[in-house]
Design goal:
Layout lengths: L4 E2 L1 H6 L2 E3 L6 E4 L4 E8 L3 E11 L1 H6 L8 E3 L1 H4 E5 L4 E7 L4 E11 L10 E9 L1
Parallel strand pairs: 3-10
Antiparallel strand pairs: 1-10, 2-4, 4-8, 5-6, 5-9, 7-8, 9-10
């Protein structure tokens, strides 16, 4: 499982601040969708990963499951919604209950030539 939380140096460098979910652990209970909002102070290019790790009962019991670490096609489950100039919303639609990690990667226009975007924030999402 990736390291959970934000890379503070990169968040400052890219002018990003988590608004809706500053805590990197999120529990989703009532619906399969989730909106995560960031304030941005620069023009930033984003990429992201959504990985399904296991069912919540497997996570709680610490038992292994054959479904560990399934990388989902992020474009099927995540949309980026601009929200008035200096905010961005990542809308996630989780396909099934379980434990996920959602990693946001970013770069600025000044990072030209860079092929791998650095991870700036990773959330642990428990959808129960």
């Amino acid at each position: 499982m990736p390291t959970i939380g934000g890379n503070n140096n990169l968040l400052v460098q890219f002018g990003m601040t988590p608004i809706s979910h500053p805590d990197p652990t999120i529990n989703v209970t009532s619906k399969d969708s989730l909106e995560i909002q960031f304030q941005i102070r620069k023009i930033v290019d984003f990429s992201f990963d959504l990985i399904y790790h296991q069912t919540l009962s497997d996570y709680q019991s610490r038992s292994l499951n054959k479904n560990l670490n399934q990388r989902l096609n992020a474009s099927d489950y995540i949309q980026i919604k601009p929200n008035g100039g200096f905010n961005v919303i990542f809308e996630l639609n989780l396909p099934k209950q379980g434990v996920y990690t959602f990693t946001i990667y970013a770069s600025t226009a000044n990072s030209s030539g860079q092929t791998d975007l650095p991870a700036v924030f990773t959330y642990l999402i428990r959808y129960i």
